[in-house]
Amino acid sequence: xxxxxxxxxxxxxxxxxxxxxxxxxxxxxxxxxxxxxxxxxxxxxxxxxxxxxx
Amino acid sequence: xxxxxxxxxxxxxxxxxxxxxxxxxxxxxxxxxxxxxxxxxxxxxxxxxxxxxxxxxxxxxxxxxxxxxxxxxxxxxxxxxxxxxxxxxxxxxxxxxxxxxxxxxxxxxxxxxxxxxxxxxxxxxxxxxxxxxxxxxxxxxxxxxxxxxxxxxxxxxxxxxxxxxxxxxxxxxxxxxxxxxxxxxxxxxxxxxxxxxxxxxxxxxxxxxxxxxxxxxxxxxxxxxxxxxxxxxxxxxxxxxxxxxxxxxxxxxxxxxxxxxxxxxxxxxxxxxxxxxxxxxxxxxxxxxxxxxxxxxxxxxxxxxxxxxxxxxxxxxxxxxxxxxxxxxxxxxxxxxxxxxxxxxxxxxxxxxxxxxxxxxxxxxxxxxxxxxxxxxxxxxxxxxxxxxxxxxxxxxxxxxxxxxxxxxxxxxxxxxxxxxxxxxxxxxxxxxxxxxxxxxxxxxxxxxxxxxxxxxxxxxxxxxxxxxxxxxxxxxxxxxxxxxxxxxxxxxxxxxxxxxxxxxxxxxxxxxxxxxxxxxxxxxxxxxxxxxxxxxxxxxxxxxxxxxxxxxxxxxxxxxxxxxxxxxxxxxxxxxxxxxxxxxxxxxxxxxxxxxxxxxxxxxxx
Amino acid sequence: xxxxxxxxxxxxxxxxxxxxxxxxxxxxxxxxxxxxxxxxxxxxxxxxxxxxxxxxxxxxxxxxxxxxxxxxxxxxxxxxxxxxxxxxxxxxxxxxxxxxxxxxxxxxxxxxxxxxxxxxxxxxxxxxxxxxxxxxxxxxxxxxxxxxxxxxxxxxxxxxxxxxx
Lengths: 54, 607, 165
Description:
The structure holds three protein chains of three kinds.
Chain A: H1 2-21, H2 26-36, H3 49-52
Chain B: E1 2-7, E2 14-19, E3 22-28, H1 30-33, H2 43-53, E4 62-65, H3 69-83, H4 88-102, H5 105-115, E5 123-125, H6 129-138, E6 145-151, E7 158-166, E8 169-177, H7 182-192, H8 201-207, H9 216-222, E9 224-226, E10 232-234, H10 250-255, H11 269-297, E11 301-305, H12 312-321, E12 326-329, H13 335-350, H14 375-385, E13 390-391, H15 395-406, E14 411-414, E15 428-432, H16 439-447, E16 457-461, H17 465-468, E17 480-483, H18 498-503, E18 518-524, H19 530-543, E19 547-552, H20 564-573, E20 578-581, E21 584-587
Parallel strand pairs in B: 1-4, 4-5, 6-11, 11-12, 14-20, 16-18
Antiparallel strand pairs in B: 1-2, 2-3, 6-7, 7-8, 9-10, 13-21, 14-15, 15-19, 16-19, 17-18, 20-21
Chain C: H1 2-25, H2 28-32, H3 44-63, H4 67-86, H5 88-132, E1 150-151
Helix pairs in contact in C: 3-4, 4-5
């Protein structure tokens, strides 16, 4: 639930940014990154949540 | 109103707490985690700030993060648009971190506060990176109005800004934008001369006086285009930071007649000359920018922050040759200080609270804003571990320590509240006799385990600064370099070999006189640090020298010590003679044998 | 008298502050005490969740008649359940291996997903900039500009400090 709240907040920030700077190109890129977020590994961190289910 | 300021995820994470405009606490995360320049979310520093201020679960009113993550992320994406198809390696390193961490700042804050049992306040603020720097420079300064100059690597887009502070208002007037950056230019040379970017910049500055400014014209002719107002552009064809993981590229190496020095290899005359040249260029640009800031603001005073403001040689020159009557530099000028600036920005700009400066004193409390430990706590710790110690009280304390210094002992000193910022100012310091000819090399090689060319700084009684240095004002934060007074200097043959030159006595306070007869001065005031002042005063009474060596309490690659336990560990690992923990004095000779793995130095990444 | 009282209150406030700070930043007392071995996290719950997920997969595969894979997954589920319920140490080893595997798969996928994304998205973007003659990084150096300082626009947004942009 908390994650959903922050996700909505983040999307709101990016829409605000795109609106203000007329930089709509950022929206599809960010949506793409958010989709990939559950699959990628950053630095030396542990496995993403999705893998731990299996 | 309690405002928590946070800087995180780049280098040197930190937290600061401002209560009704007063700076209550500030500390860097590295001091608690013992990981140099720790960039993780500063959960330990936050926990400390909450404890220091005694904040109950529902008493935190606002949180301020020191930059605008969305703008910064957009800049990073635009950079890849500018360099693709190059830049893949940098992209693969940076973007996953952004996806999983850096875009989720409010969530990180909420989780951190939860771990500290603090309720997440409704208000989270995001001042811009350079606004945070500017706020950290102007709001705590003694001036009611001033010009403000910030210089660092890069924030969102800005790399340098000129601002104008008046009362509680702080306005950024102009900026220079990425990729044109004085901080990155200096870091590029740090990298090229074989030091670590983001921590080796001091070494480059320390190396500069050994060289000649042979490459100044080469730098101006090829690497950058500077205007009279100090604004500039860097010729990106020589740099590698836009599309790769290196600061400079092959074309840069060709320009300087060979590849970058590899880390830990011998330093040659070329590195010294390069260091001197880039130092000269940096100073000239800072001076031009300051003159322009003076011109457009018409102010008498200047406030400085950002990593480049830690270049105390440039600061010294700015004070002497610049147009301002006085300058004030934020002691935590790097990104750590951004946490404090962000919190102050919220108090004054977002909440519109008034500000009254008295023109004399700053609001940094001597930068002693970190944790302190009582004699009772220290005593109980020593007793439990059976570490023998003497407790000294009243005048005995200062007199006995002065005697130990006079006898050429090296002392580790842990007093009162830990300093905020990269400099040790007497509360987490290693101290020794500045008159001793052998002290510089003893301290470098046997205690700090670092390069022998690196100079040490003096701490001097505030009222005696003029007796030793060509400096007519206090320098409480060790951010000004000033010449040692001529009548104290000795004439020397200019030997060429760096080792010979290091070991020559250059004045009657040789341990703190750098090769160019300068010193990075700390003036000690009884108002901000009475105990440290008393100690130097006792040394003055005994020897007629109101000056001692003061270097940070750590070994190379280690963060400065925080707790007495950190201090004891460092004390036992090195050849320090005595350790002072508040009123307790520990003699190395009577301590129990220190059992530890022999390769503890591998725990620290050399800086 | 009042002054003395103030001083005493001040002293006790200060002692409280020092106690709080020491408790928050210096854990030597806790380190020195003989404490119980930290309780290891339970293995029953994660094992049950895992088995439930695997059973869902089994149901789907059964529906599509992939009987060999169904058998393999059932074996894994049984091992997980038995270890999770009765042999926690073995379950933890399996979990560690799973983590390791997860990191490996994740690292691989990071490259598989992001590498083409980088080349497709950013190279096309770059080409479009080149065609339009734009450089958002303003790299030209030197130029004829009288100054490289850029004027800031005054802040007009009310929510400026609260926004992440």
